[in-house]
From TrEMBL:
This is Uncharacterized protein. It comes from Nasonia vitripennis (Parasitic wasp). Residues 184-254 form the BTB domain. Residues 18-149 form the MATH domain. Pfam families: BTB. InterPro entries: BTB/POZ_dom, MATH/TRAF_dom, SKP1/BTB/POZ_sf, TRAF-like. GO terms for biological process: protein catabolic process.
Amino acid sequence: MSLISIGDVSVTPCCTCVAKYQWDMHNFWICCKDSEDMLVSPEFLAAHDSSPIIWSQLAFYPKGKTNKYNACFSIFVKIISRCADVDITEVTLSLFNDEHELISRVFKQPTHTDASLWGAEKFIHRSVAKEKVMSKKEPNDNLTIYLTMKTKKSQGSMGVLRFGKHIESINNDYEKLLNNEAFTDIKLEIVGDKSIRAHRIILSRRSPVFSFILMGRLNQAQEHKIVSVPIYISYNVCLEMLRFMYTERVNDMDAIADELLIAASEYCIEDLKRLCEMSLIKNLNVDNVIQRLELAHSCGAETLKATAIGFMAVHSGLLIQKREYRAMATDVSYEVYTAHYNRFT
């Protein structure tokens, strides 16, 4: 089985409790040679009252998720993460067949085997959905999958509320450990004669890069010495990176999201990286989209990159005269031009 990322996901404006998306795929059939091969969309987010709450990804098996249904399309939406106070009440997945008939299936609950998946292995028989895919005379290797997701704010219970307050209390306690010399065993040396004290066990568990660095200084730790580690990012960014590692919180995220994304990428802190992407996507506009696309490309931030490319394809008329647009790296500009071309083909 192979997993291939393909296509673009676009958002259809709707009310705050209903999120609508469409996933456009081109030349999808040539990507899938075997049964169980899976195509996935870029990750995307849903919002409730303008706040990002659900990270999702669409998955499509042109030759079935399992051999049992290899004559069918299998289609799912995977819920990667969501806020605790939001419930998904209904998911609708749809596509048009070659007769321009909309085929939809409504799901009131996730699959029995995986609570993060909504959809069906036997979504529709492949010949009913895309006869032209199999036709040599009139091939059609493009497909759009539509998603509608309904959500609601959960009322919760007293037990849930107490648990939430308990987690908040733990985070507050961990935040008090941040840059507190008591019981610390690491000193992060920052350019400009500044330093931050931290705890080896937390950093090594939260970042594989820190784990590798600290393993190289194991003798110092065994001798109960403070381990010094040079850090080549600014003091404020380093402090907020550590705050996230201790508490999963960030202060003033919007102000430092771009620098923090670079740091999260460098130290392989994937959850922080995703949070930075959400902040940068939320504030995307024609003045910053080129810089954020280049940032996403350099940091491997695929969700931000796909969103920025889609944004630029839609607003190309406003961007094409900008010097930064013409100065984009060749590989990045090719992806932008391809997205723009696909909008009109």
